[in-house]
Specification:
- The complex is a heterodimer.
- Chain A is α+β, with helices and mostly antiparallel strands.
- Chain A is built from 16 helices and 10 strands.
- In chain A, the strands form 2 sheets. In chain A, strands 3, 4, 5, 6, 7, 8, 9 and 10 form an 8-stranded mixed β-sheet that branches. In chain A, strands 1-2 form a two-stranded antiparallel ribbon.
- In chain A, a hairpin with a 6-residue loop joins strand 9 and strand 10.
- In chain A, helix 1 crosses helix 2 and helix 12 crosses helix 13.
- The longest helix of chain A has 48 residues.
- Chain B is of the alpha+beta class.
- In chain B, strands 3-2-1-4-5 form a 5-stranded mixed β-sheet.
- In chain B, strand 2 and strand 3 form a beta hairpin.
- In chain B, helix 1 crosses helix 2 and helix 2 packs antiparallel against helix 5.
- In chain B, 29% of the residues are buried.
- Classes of the chains: A alpha+beta, B alpha+beta.
């Protein structure tokens, strides 16, 4: 049993062994060999957590010598943070068939829902109570009239977005907290405790922060959707199910690879961050960044003329080198899982690839909507990479006075 | 809607906006630290204002004067109408689009102006509240 305050909690060897998932004799041996550092000879929650990490590393085939070296350098210290997360209780998980009976969902549907969230096959076969509670919401969602095809896409978006968040949290904590402590030569146990304390303070902030940001963006996109529908109705542009008529821009930094070679990765990444931030802060309200890939940004907007105006104005505002190059196209695209797909998206990407630093290239569907304040110079029909037909391109610049 | 009744009212409102930016505990110090002297010309009213970061001994964050006869060089120059300024400070005028549409002419170190945009964003909400409370005819 544990006894003492939070800071000085001492565990019995039996309790430490239970927490670590190893026998008391094994723990004693690991402590004697210095593989698990003890606090003044006492088993503490941190030491038990360390022992659990050692047990896991042993299962993966690492030798005690390797583990001791990693432990001495503090490389295992991050594992302690896992202690702050709700404990896994495999004994409370229920088999898939039982979960199906309790939720009223077909086993195959449970598999589809959980695999859409990104769960691996093993996690789907035995379902813990927390996931069971989530699955019990699914019949309500479907009965309310939300189509299964949309629910599965939403699950995939949630899974991918939350996996990205968790991955970023761990990576950034590692890069900016763990590694500096390792460089400073802080002893393993002390490092683990410092990190555990910091994580204990930060973890409770994550859920309210995500909830707030989610609500804020939900409000924003509901409003944008409403405006988009009104305008589409006026224009007679109601597309097929899952298809949208939008404008797509791709923008990147011309000569980014050369810049990386010349100034190094860190400085080049800083340039990309400034570029992406500049795109973010200058975009019109109804446009949004769908994704960034390296130095490339994909933006969508309901209004091609407004997006073209933004692009031309952005080239006047973002004067830093390397200069951005921007390509814009408009057409019907397929919306799936938070992303946009189809031939028209590919065309937009290829148009951007044809532009030079400081230029905005647009296709005819965009150029036709341009206002008189812009000059659209037809530069001809070009065969874009991967397309058999040629595409008419226009160079957009501010019109002369 | 959205037009100033007179140059006097425009100047009075701009004074209030600059005052809010100067006194705001977040915006003020950040604008002072950014240290980007700007010149705004409101061509329909034939008005010019120059604004700069205050020096440590001036006891504030920003200093502005409604003249070109100032003892400092502007780093960024923006020309627009009073109507565009009103729309901008209510968050209804996208700067990049306004530049393309020639509603805003930007000169000088526009990169520095870009860096100020996220800092000054909170003014939109303050100004909208001011318009709603005291200048409803300026709402856009």
């Amino acid at each position: 049993m544990a006894r003492g305050s939070q800071e000085t909690t001492t565990l019995s060897l039996t309790e430490a062994a239970r927490r670590a998932g190893a026998t008391p004799a094994t723990l004693r041996r690991w402590a004697d060999q210095g593989v698990v550092p003890l606090a003044n000879g006492r088993w503490t929650p941190a030491a038990a957590a360390h022992a659990r990490i050692v047990a896991r590393m042993r299962e993966r085939g690492h030798s005690l010598e390797e583990i001791r070296a990693a432990s001495d350098e503090g490389r295992l210290a991050f594992g302690y943070v896992e202690e702050l997360l709700p404990a896994l209780a495999p004994e409370t998980a229920v088999p898939l068939e039982q979960a199906a009976r309790r939720t009223g969902l077909e086993p195959a549907l449970i598999e589809r829902l959980l695999s859409s969230l990104g769960y691996d096959a093993r996690a789907i076969q035995r379902i813990p109570p927390e996931d069971l509670a989530l699955l019990q919401l699914a019949p309500q969602v479907l009965d309310a009239g939300f189509p299964l095809v949309a629910l599965l896409q939403l699950m995939r978006v949630y899974g991918q977005a939350l996996a990205d968040i968790a991955d970023a949290e761990v990576r950034l904590f590692h890069l900016y907290v763990h590694e500096p402590l390792m460089r400073d030569g802080v002893p393993g146990l002390e490092m683990a405790e410092q990190m555990e304390q910091l994580a204990r303070g930060l973890l409770p902030l994550a859920s309210p922060l995500m909830d707030r940001v989610h609500q804020r963006f939900l409000r924003h996109f509901v409003e944008q959707d409403m405006i988009g529908h009104m305008e589409a109705a006026f224009d007679g542009e109601i597309g097929d199910l899952g298809r949208l008529r939008i404008a797509i821009a791709f923008a990147d930094l011309a000569g980014y690879t050369r810049l990386t070679e010349e100034v190094g990765e860190e400085e080049a990444v800083d340039a990309v961050e400034r570029f992406v931030e500049a795109v973010q802060i200058t975009l019109p309200d109804d446009a949004r960044i769908v994704k960034t890939i390296g130095d490339e940004v994909m933006v969508v907007a309901p209004d091609a003329a407004a997006l073209l105006d933004w692009a031309v104005g952005f080239q006047q505002l973002f004067t830093e080198r390397p200069r951005p190059r921007i390509g814009i196209h408009a057409g019907d695209v397929l919306y799936r899982e938070g992303d946009y797909y189809g031939r028209e998206v590919n065309i937009a990407a290829r148009v951007a690839a044809r532009s030079a630093g400081g230029e905005v290239l647009a296709t005819r569907p965009v150029a036709e909507q341009a206002g008189a304040h812009l000059e659209l110079e037809r530069i001809g029909e070009v065969r874009l990479k991967g397309f058999s037909e040629s595409t008419e391109l226009f160079l957009a610049t501010p019109a002369h006075d | 809607m959205g037009s100033f009744r007179s140059p006097k009212e425009f100047r009075e409102v701009m004074e209030r906006i600059f005052g809010m930016m100067d006194e705001d505990p977040d915006m003020g110090p950040r604008l002072r630290d950014a240290d980007v002297p700007q010149r705004f010309e409101f061509e329909d009213l034939d008005l010019v204002v120059n604004i700069r970061a205050a020096r440590p001994d001036e006891g504030r964050n920003l200093v502005w004067e409604w003249t070109d006869d100032v003892a400092w060089e502007s780093k960024v120059r923006m020309t627009m109408s009073s109507e565009t300024a009103n729309r901008y400070f209510q968050g209804k005028e996208n700067v990049a689009m306004a530049i393309a549409r020639r509603r805003i002419k930007a000169g000088g170190d526009v990169k520095a102006a870009l860096a100020l945009m996220p800092i000054t964003k909170p003014i939109f909400e303050h100004y909208r509240a001011l318009v709603a409370a005291e200048y409803p005819h300026l709402a856009v």
